Fold Mobile element protein.
Amino acid sequence: MDKRTVPAHQRMEIPLKPNHALPYPSKTVPEKLKQQTKVRRRIEDILEAQEFDALWKDG
């Protein structure tokens, strides 16, 4: 098919899924992003634990 006759949105290689949160499949999520997510979860866990400890001491 000649590229000039194909509309731009149909020319894209990536299949567009309306309900897909990421613009790329989860298998290709960059490692850096995975690391950031891990770190963020760890921080949340620590903060939660500190909060719990504070409540435990009060109560």
Q: What stands out?
A: Residues 5 and 11 are 10 Å apart (CA to CA).
